[in-house]
Sequence to fold (127 residues):
Amino acid sequence: SHLSMPHVPGMPFEFDYAVNDPVHMAFYSHNANSDGDQVKGEYRVQLPDGRTQIVTYVADWATGFHADVKYEGEASYPPPAPYSPPPAPPGGYPSPGSFPSPPSGGGGGGGGGGGGGAFTGYPAGGP
Fold:
């Protein structure tokens, strides 16, 4: 068990920072301090619904991490935008008269191979 291992105290510390950035809607802060054995701290985050989440915590080597989470303010949500159906897709299929006419001459329809007129022989020099 980790409790049977000898406890070596950590380095004492203290810090504090805050971000207040209305352009990117980023509002949060964090502070913590430690005597080397126990860390106490708090962080705050402004949530998208307008409330502020506040987490206060204590952590030490013997009992672990313990947090208390609270919320300040009232959640508010913008009214939904009125429904607007997407625009209709452009036109349907083109009318039959709008396709180009097949090339004239030759005949030669059936049988496969497609193409226009009848076979008239190989050019000079053979196939």
